[in-house]
């Protein structure tokens, strides 16, 4: 957890990240003016709180931009479209948000991140990444063949288009399209999803999503040394000479400033189901 800021000891430093839409840019300008006249400081390089204006994708970009400060920085998402999973302030609530920032006491809510460790078959050093939504390994040119291990035990040989591992907050993004379960972000877990596995009398995979706890890890050993596409959130990272990938729940977490709380299942309902009809239907 980030340290609780001593109230009144130092001015809260804020960074603002906006997407390219005209509306977001306009709200960013208004926000900037309001923050400054409220006596708050703007520091794009070393912020205490990162404010994003746009959608979930905007928060995803901001997360990667401020990854080096992940232990101490807190995020706040303002959405200019629909209610998002990482964005729960509306654009017309900017004044209320500025007041919350003025009275900030450093409180936060923290969600799990995915740790991705890449090993290579040549002498390249291992590489580590953090994902907020998911990491996806795919082969677009031929069948991807990988061995899946859970902890140190062989689990299955996978043949198909690819595999994706997501965080709980990422479970409402790509993972959901792959048939994954929606996972409450207080669960310290990650979910493995198949992408078009080959399943017949010869080849067998589990064929359903699989969720592991924070005490376990998943390793994928690459069999046919192809040139795979690795996606970490919105970033594409083509890989050659990959030998294996290790996925686990990171020790690091993402922190959100918790000036108010929208229950997770309300967000899920809002995003995928919508309000119940006001009047009861007869049928
Ligand atoms: P994008 O193509 O602009 O966004 C894809 C959609 O995913 C947007 O509607 C975005 O919301 C939404 N989204 C992002 N994170 C989410 C989350 N945690 N829960 C629910 N919805 C979420 O790409 P992007 O904005 O850079 O985001 C990259 C993410 O898109 C990837 O991490 C992946 O999860 C997702 N994606 C999904 C599919 C799929 O469902 N088939 C395919 C590719 C990528 P906003 O409009 O609010 O930004
Ligand atoms: Mn987007």
From TrEMBL:
<keyword id="KW-0520">NAD</keyword>
<dbReference type="GO" id="GO:0019674">
    <property type="term" value="P:NAD+ metabolic process"/>
</dbReference>
<comment type="function">
    <text>Involved in the regulation of the intracellular balance of NAD and NADP, and is a key enzyme in the biosynthesis of NADP. Catalyzes specifically the phosphorylation on 2'-hydroxyl of the adenosine moiety of NAD to yield NADP.</text>
</comment>
<keyword id="KW-0963">Cytoplasm</keyword>
<dbReference type="GO" id="GO:0051287">
    <property type="term" value="F:NAD binding"/>
</dbReference>
<dbReference type="GO" id="GO:0046872">
    <property type="term" value="F:metal ion binding"/>
</dbReference>
<keyword id="KW-0418">Kinase</keyword>
<feature type="active site" description="Proton acceptor">
    <location>
        <position position="56"/>
    </location>
</feature>
<dbReference type="InterPro" id="IPR002504">
    <property type="entry name" value="NADK"/>
</dbReference>
<dbReference type="GO" id="GO:0005524">
    <property type="term" value="F:ATP binding"/>
</dbReference>
<dbReference type="GO" id="GO:0006741">
    <property type="term" value="P:NADP+ biosynthetic process"/>
</dbReference>
<dbReference type="Pfam" id="PF01513">
    <property type="entry name" value="NAD_kinase"/>
</dbReference>
<dbReference type="Pfam" id="PF20143">
    <property type="entry name" value="NAD_kinase_C"/>
</dbReference>
<feature type="binding site">
    <location>
        <begin position="133"/>
        <end position="134"/>
    </location>
    <ligand>
        <name>NAD(+)</name>
    </ligand>
</feature>
<feature type="binding site">
    <location>
        <position position="196"/>
    </location>
    <ligand>
        <name>NAD(+)</name>
    </ligand>
</feature>
<keyword id="KW-0547">Nucleotide-binding</keyword>
<feature type="binding site">
    <location>
        <position position="161"/>
    </location>
    <ligand>
        <name>NAD(+)</name>
    </ligand>
</feature>
<feature type="binding site">
    <location>
        <position position="159"/>
    </location>
    <ligand>
        <name>NAD(+)</name>
    </ligand>
</feature>
<dbReference type="InterPro" id="IPR017437">
    <property type="entry name" value="ATP-NAD_kinase_PpnK-typ_C"/>
</dbReference>
<dbReference type="GO" id="GO:0005737">
    <property type="term" value="C:cytoplasm"/>
</dbReference>
<feature type="binding site">
    <location>
        <begin position="172"/>
        <end position="177"/>
    </location>
    <ligand>
        <name>NAD(+)</name>
    </ligand>
</feature>
<keyword id="KW-0067">ATP-binding</keyword>
<dbReference type="GO" id="GO:0003951">
    <property type="term" value="F:NAD+ kinase activity"/>
</dbReference>
<protein>
    <recommendedName>
        <fullName>NAD kinase</fullName>
        <ecNumber>2.7.1.23</ecNumber>
    </recommendedName>
</protein>
<comment type="similarity">
    <text>Belongs to the NAD kinase family.</text>
</comment>
<keyword id="KW-0521">NADP</keyword>
<dbReference type="InterPro" id="IPR016064">
    <property type="entry name" value="NAD/diacylglycerol_kinase_sf"/>
</dbReference>
<dbReference type="InterPro" id="IPR017438">
    <property type="entry name" value="ATP-NAD_kinase_N"/>
</dbReference>
<feature type="binding site">
    <location>
        <begin position="56"/>
        <end position="57"/>
    </location>
    <ligand>
        <name>NAD(+)</name>
    </ligand>
</feature>
<keyword id="KW-0808">Transferase</keyword>
């Amino acid at each position: 957890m980030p340290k609780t800021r001593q109230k009144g000891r130092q001015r809260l430093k804020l960074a603002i990240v906006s997407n390219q839409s005209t509306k977001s840019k306009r709200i960013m300008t208004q926000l900037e003016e309001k923050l400054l006249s409220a006596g708050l400081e703007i520091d794009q390089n070393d912020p205490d709180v990162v404010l994003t204006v746009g959608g979930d994708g905007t928060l995803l970009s901001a997360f990667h931009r401020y990854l080096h400060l992940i232990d101490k920085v807190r995020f706040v998402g303002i959405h200019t479209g629909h209610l998002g999973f990482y964005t729960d302030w509306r654009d017309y609530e900017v004044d209320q948000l500025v007041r919350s920032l003025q009275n900030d006491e450093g409180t936060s809510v923290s969600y799990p991140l995915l740790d991705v460790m890449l090993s290579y078959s040549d002498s390249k050093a291992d590489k580590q990444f953090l994902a907020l939504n998911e990491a996806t390994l795919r082969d677009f040119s031929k069948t991807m063949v990988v061995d899946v291990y859970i902890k140190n035990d062989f689990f299955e040989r996978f043949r198909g288009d690819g595999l994706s591992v997501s965080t709980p907050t990422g479970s409402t993004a790509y993972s959901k399209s792959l048939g994954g379960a929606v996972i409450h972000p207080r669960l310290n877990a990650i979910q493995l999803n198949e992408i078009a596995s080959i399943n017949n009398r010869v080849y067998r995979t589990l064929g359903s999503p699989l969720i592991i706890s924070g005490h376990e890890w998943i390793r994928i050993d690459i069999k046919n040394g192809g040139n795979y596409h690795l996606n970490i959130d919105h970033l594409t990272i083509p890989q050659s000479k990959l030998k294996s990938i290790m996925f686990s729940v990171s020790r690091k977490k993402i922190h959100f400033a918790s000036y108010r709380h929208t229950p997770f299942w309300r967000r899920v309902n809002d995003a995928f189901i919508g309000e119940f009809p006001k009047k009861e239907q007869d049928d």
